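Section 5.1 Outputs to date
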Amino acid sequence: MMTAFACKLKMSYNLFLLAFALGIGGGFQYGLQVSVINSPAEYIKSFIHETWVRRYGFSATEELITLMWSFIVSIYSIGGLLGALSAGYLSVRFGRKKTMLLANIPTVLSAALMGLSRLCGSFEMIIAGRLFSGMGGGLALNIHIMFAGECAPRNLRGQLAITASTAIALGKFTGFALGLREVLGVDALWPVLMAAHAVPALVQLLTLPFFPDSPRYLLIDKKDKEGCIKAVKKLWGDGDHMAEIDDMLAEQEAIHGERAKSVCDLFRDQAVRWQLITLFLVVSCMQFIGINVVYFYAYNVFIKAGIPHAQTHYVSLGIGITEILTTVVSGSLIERAGRKTLLWKSHTVMALALGLLTVTLSLQSQAAPQALPAGVSCSLPTEIFLQSYRPAAYVLNGASNWSQLFILGLLFPFIVDGLGSFCFIIFLIYCLSTAIFVFVVMPETKGKTMLQVTEEFNRLNYRGKKRQTALQQTNCSVTTVTRL
């Protein structure tokens, strides 16, 4: 009994270290870049004005400076979209681990560009730096969630995947904390603040090489059984993991060596029709819960609510702490309550909170539940798609999220002008619709193998046909697999 208990502790310890190594250069970077840009806004605008006068001998208009600033903020999403689009090809070509390490190259480059921008007298370096930062963040975030989901045993799959949301929340909190005037939020230090994301990138470059690649990638994509077994033992500890390895072998047999699918294949293949619908409604449209819109415009809303300007940074810190606590709570519940229950309940709570927000125009009721839907949904792309479809699913998910982040960030002020106090109705409708979809349609994935989840979706994809016919059409007939 003690031996089994010690093995469980070792497995959890190794996976915890892997979650840290992935998170520090993945979700943490994304959260950091979302929040850190708020604090130096006025300093960067002043820098653009001073640079323009020094170059051209006259002052730039207020509209031009605002346009430049908007471009600095929004181009991060464009870079993120480019990074997310490349995640599928790179993750198959080089593996999850090498691709994760490669994502740090544009991140370190962006930190150098933004950190040296004032010394070189170039606000264009800030724009280029934000673009490269987005490329690294978009690539790393996709690989982070995929890598974590593929490295976890079945009973810890949800908990390990949800660490991505915790890393994002920690990144947002760190960005707000670094932006305080007592830390780096002053005129003399804003270039250091903008280059701070080089530190987590370097930490990942130093730590991730000590971990193996994804066991599922090694076995299913590279056909490396020995490497898979070594990776499993290193990540999970010594013990009997043959049931998990048999699950991977069954998945390998099911796809019959098929090449990695493209995004177009996701839309064409009937075998993944309802997986695609689930991915789009529950995961890919996550920006429509409204959380990042709140972060983009938090300071303005706080000031309009009567909070003194000097205290807005500290109120934002409170929101960051709340989000961290929410992801921790959802992590402790995900393997107990299941994905389906947590998803429909959390979206229902979000709909109620947004309804209350519409009436009261107060963010206080909104902060608490926002991280929960995003946290629970992190594990879904890994669980509902087989290995051949998984990279394409993450590409579609990343591209959709980054596009929405850019569009909502650009259009939300106009939505506010047009709808006034009813501007959050859009997010309310999404949350309510998703809650109904999850409750009525989506099958539970907790504790099930990839093939079992596929069979659940086959009942939807091939409704009215015999089960065996459905399995044949998706090449998912389960054959007898010899134990290693």
